[in-house]
Amino acid sequence: MSPMATSGKSANGANGANGAHAPGAGPEAEDADGEELTFEPFDRGEAPCPDAPAHVLELVASCQRMVSAAVGVPLDGTSDTLPLLDHYVGGARAELEAKPELQAVIERSVGAYFGEIVRQLYGGFWRAEGDPESWRVCLSSVYLAFNPLGVAREALANDHAEGWHAHAKVEEAYEPFVKARLDAFGDIDADEFFLPSSRWDALEVVVSVVKERMIHDEEAHGFFELADYDDEEA
User: Fold this and answer.
1) Nearest to 142 by CA among 79, 201, 56, 203
2) What is the pLDDT of residues 135-146, one digit of tens each?
3) Which domain holds residue 53?
4) Percent of the chain with pLDDT over 70
């Protein structure tokens, strides 16, 4: 099973997308149609990526401060330093056993950081109002939404968090292709399954496959807007 197992929906409001990347994906894989998939470096081009809400940026900064204090090396806002976040999460698991009152601030800070680096790479929008279970990052380069706070919650618990929507939601038509590609990677070690870097690797594959299918289906002709996610179910 993949760290970013998907659930689907139909997204008829699509305006399109741009690019694709799965670093270290190895030889080209075959999708559910038996067609060869090739992956290219992702370039979001002009995919919309407006400024994140101020309260999200405060949480991102909080994560950077906490990780720097804990491991002595700052996060740089890219996936390159996600192993540092993995290390911090491992320590935070033990800390939360002794201080469960810190759960909300650590969870939201880690989730905001992870969500923002995903959004900066692929373009997209935050929905960050209301209960944390309802927060979403909605990408603009492909149709994909997920709750990064759910990703953080599962990372800290090292377990699935029902109702937190850490999985990637894509169009139903693309689910078989995504599953086929993720299954090709085999099982992930239980100690690493929920870590942020594992989620990142899986998310890259999901975005890449969806983009490839959009090109195949001649739907890659623009970008998604936040309004395309208006009927996104919680």
Assistant:
1) 203
2) 999 999 999 999
3) 49-229
4) 79
